[in-house]
Amino acid sequence: MFFRKSRRESKAKLEHKLYLAKETPEPIFDLSDCGIRDVPQGIFSICRVFLKVCLRLDSNNLASLSGGGNLTELRLLKILNISHNNFSHLPDELGALVNLQELHAILDVSYNNLKQLPEDIGDLVSLKKLDLIHNNLKQLPTSICGAQRLTHLTLDTAHFEYPPQEVVERGLEALMQYICDDTGIEYKKVENLSDVLVSMEKSESYFDEDDKQLQVMK
């Protein structure tokens, strides 16, 4: 009985949030904490038609982004939050999100199991914040050198293999410089080094409704 009630409540919450997405000018499409296992059909198209710049799919039971439509329909997105789900990998087509500034994969290890990032991560040339804490990542793809506007990176450094753990622990500039040198790509130093973060500590994400920015608390 409780399970059925919970499913009804989740369905009602989802329907209400879908209604709000279409009826309000709010640029944030919030489908967080709806108990969904699949992205509802047509969600990506709704983002495009209603000019949504932030899509929240966090705190669900998702293992894939398939079902929502073609990822190219999310070209206007600046913030994508898929934290606290069941992802074991990210789609290779991620590079299609050319305006993406913040890719939030702040994933609790009890809900997610990312072991690698797609090579297309380097195509996100506007990417500024990449949060990967609480996963099983042991290496970063060399293609990440393409994301040279990156100013924030959070991940677990324990048992990291590439770049070596001692490099990762020196911070984002050292990490990016190491990979760029390794691949023969020029590294252009980011301007605001005070914003650079590579974290070994547990992080918690929250959404600030006042400034509409997804932030990370240490």
Observed structural traits:
218 residues; alpha/beta; Leucine-rich repeat, LRR (right-handed beta-alpha superhelix); 6-stranded parallel sheet; two-stranded antiparallel sheet; 8 strands; disordered C terminus; LRR_dom_sf; repeat
What does this structure look like?
The protein has one domain: Alpha-Beta Horseshoe (Leucine-rich repeat, LRR (right-handed beta-alpha superhelix)). The strands form 2 sheets. A 6-stranded parallel beta sheet has the order 1-2-3-4-5-6. Strands 7-8 form a two-stranded antiparallel ribbon. It is α/β, with parallel strands linked by helices and 218 residues long. It is globular, with a radius of gyration of 18 Å. The protein starts with a helix and ends with a strand. It is built from 4 helices and 8 strands.
Rg calculated over all Cα atoms: 18 Å
| CATH uppermost class | Alpha Beta
- Give the rounded overall mean pLDDT: 79
Question: How many domains is the backbone divided into?
Answer: 1
Low-confidence stretches: 105-111, 193-197, 199-218
The largest sheet, given as strand count, sense and whether it forms a barrel, is: 6 strands, parallel
**How many strand units?**
8
* 3D shape: globular
Largest sheet: spatial strand order: 1-2-3-4-5-6
CATH homologous superfamily, by name? Ribonuclease Inhibitor
Q: N-to-C SSE series?
A: HEHEEEEEHHEE
CATH architecture: Alpha-Beta Horseshoe
Rounded to the nearest angstrom, the distance between the terminal CA atoms is 39 Å
Q: Level of helix content?
A: 10-25%
InterPro entries: Leu-rich_rpt (IPR001611), Leu-rich_rpt_typical-subtyp (IPR003591), LRR_dom_sf (IPR032675), LRR_domain-containing (IPR050216)
Keywords: Leucine-rich repeat, Repeat
